[in-house]
Write a structure and sequence with these properties.
Arc Repressor Mutant, subunit A, 2 domains, two-stranded antiparallel ribbon, 7 helices, 6 strands
Length: 183
Amino acid sequence: MKAVYKTVAERLPKAAVIQRSGQTYLTTQAVICVRLDYELPKDVPVKVRRFVFGKLKESSSNRVEYGTTLFSYVVDARPTAKSITERLQRYRRAMKLVVEDPEIQGGAATFKGTRLLVHHIAGLLQQGVSKPELREDYPNLTQEMIEAARIYVQAHPRRGRPRKPAWRNTKPLSSQLVRRRSA
């Protein structure tokens, strides 16, 4: 997150960042620039990055060339733009299936029309429960909801310190004392 904030503050054109009610929002073009900043080699100077991001904001083409006497840079943002656009579309489709209503499950993220918790379904998937088994246990669960759970959990991780594993407070099944020989 620090790298993203640094990129937003130091490298992006000011027009790519929107401030509303004390919150910072990024345009789609700004998200593409942040991704490009991550993908560019680390030895590309900040001056070149600013130039590239500014040109991407100004022009409709997704190809920018920057040249000096020593180096020449060509940045093609089309693959990154395509990837970002597809991921945003998947995220928006997933968010249409999720509701956070204080009247339902205390405001926890649930699927619309059900009382199924999104984080619970994603946790089951992470533990290795198969999709057919999930659909057998939860008949109202659709394939789209399963994919939405994965996307939602990536975008909205649980806050706070992770819970300690159940085995943490139990005694070991066996133990063995190993003595080292002194040199």
